[in-house]
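2024-03-11 09:14:02 DEBUG pipeline.ingest accepted 1 chain
2024-03-11 09:14:02 DEBUG pipeline.ingest length=270
2024-03-11 09:14:03 DEBUG pipeline.predict start
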Amino acid sequence: MRAAGTTPATWVRPLTRTPTKPMMTPTQPTQPTNRPRLRLFCFPYAGGGTWAYRGWADHLPDGVELHAIALPGREARMAERPVADLPTLLAELVPALRPRLDVPFAFFGHSMGAVLAWETARAVQADCGRSPEHVFVSGSPPPSLVSTGVQDLPTLPDDELVRRIAQLNGSPGEVLANAELMELLLPTFRADFTLLANYVPGAVDPPPACPVTVFGGDHDPRAEPNSLGGWAEFTRDTPEVCVLPGDHFFLHSARDQLLARVSAHLSARL
């Protein structure tokens, strides 16, 4: 394992929200590794950012370099307009990731990030002819059910949208109670929920030619455990399903168990 410490990603921040431009650097290693043997790219959940994966690098096998994907409309890219449709996001992500796929790689995504990880894996395979070593989808129902239950979220009044976000237990209460902060964050939440509400599983690109692990929480109302097996309809081979204790954000509450499983799979690919 590595010593503690992280290197934050840095970008020049425009002073006002601007139309999103192609992602010049959507990802930076959270802790650069000398001659990485594998890169793990982690995709954020709705309204989330690279901070969701803070500390992960210290728990991954030696030789694995973690890259947290930085999307428009959050953190250092807060001034950029968030992207509300998947095709536009993929058109920017794939070319930006391409130079970093010079070593074996894997994708991890939680909730909305699971959709992004899955579809990016398919798009990279079609574009570059390369598949990830492993795809980890976490906290997401199978693709056919992703839009279920979120269609109304993008158009809810602010107070109702904040209430629905609070029900998922992923945002600190002090953040949700800060009206000025939420005024900045809600456009990103709305864009992310719009992406999910309009998501239709792609029918063109084949599934990634790699193993898939599906993580779920045993008390997750968004991706109920009995729905996770439905991912098998979309994968090349039967995926591994791993149910951990927790609600929708077991990603944090059961982090050690989740990372142990991820690390075991990555170690086998080194």
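2024-03-11 09:14:41 DEBUG pipeline.report The beta strands are 27-29, 38-43, 64-69, 105-110, 135-138, 212-217, 240-244.
2024-03-11 09:14:41 DEBUG pipeline.predict end
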